[in-house]
Amino acid sequence: MQPHKIAIIGGIGSGKSVVSKLFRLMNIPVYDCDSEAKRLMNTSATLRTELTKAIDEQVYGADGQIDRAYLASYMFGHAEHVALVNSIVHPAVRAHFKQWAIDTHAPIVAVETAILFESKMDADVDSIVWVSAPIETRIARAVQRDHSSEQAIRQRMKSQMSDAELMKRADHIIQNDDTTSLIAQVKQVVEKIASK
Fold first, then answer.
1. d(CA 75, CA 77)
2. What is the DSSP pairing of strand 172-175 with strand 4-9?
3. Is-contact 111 8, C-beta < 8 A?
């Protein structure tokens, strides 16, 4: 039986990971797209073949692991290179997520992703939870977490889909503004989905 699949989305510093932890505490398995993509690039023979063919042999180091610095330099400032790598990695992650969702044998599962629509993964989920937080709060969190400058964070935010667009596409909104209870909101979303 197919589980109900929830996407957990939100901009930089919104608190997607915190919300994901709460879902896990409520016995809902969560697939972390970012870490799974990294793992698949290191373990999938198919991805290795395709990435090596698309880029070159140097994209994998002597240890057999993806050379993240080399890959980053290949992609940096080259939209066509980014598109090429994404066209190889995104379908592999989507296929893996769909199989993982079945293998969990859970009635509800979730996926945490920063690029739900860009990767076309929105076609693989049943509902979308958008984690919202004030812009200034998000910037402060991201600066502290990533040890980055405010300017760099604002630049990264500009490259993401707008909050207004994400809010329109979401089925559920969770406010992570440090005043509203996150636990109560997550519980409410889970109860709504479970009741259906």
1. 6
2. unpaired
3. yes
1-29+108-196 has which fold?
A: Rossmann fold (3.40.50)
pLDDT tens string 137-175: 888 888 888 788 888 888 877 777 777 888 889 999 999
| Local structure of residue 98 (DSSP, 8 states) | H
Q: How many residues belong to the chain?
A: 196
CB contact burial 123-142 (16+ within 10 A = b; e otherwise): ebbebbbbbbbeeeebbebb
**Residues 6 or more apart whose Cβ sits within 8 Å of residue 110:** 5, 6, 7, 8, 20, 23, 28, 29, 30, 31, 129
For residue 19, the surrounding DSSP H or E stretch is helix 16-25
Distance CA 145, CA 131 (A): 17
Round to whole Å and give the CA distance between 12 and 138.
Answer: 7
Cα separation, 102 vs 104, in Å, equals 6
Q: Between vectors from CA 86 to CA 144 and to CA 68, what angle results, nearest 5°? A: 55
User: What are the boundaries of each domain within the chain?
Assistant: 1-29+108-196, 41-103
pLDDT by residue (tens digit) across 62-113? 898 999 999 999 988 888 999 999 999 999 999 999 999 999 999 999 999 9
φ, ψ dihedrals at 116, nearest 5°: -55, -50
Q: Which amino acid is at 106?
A: A
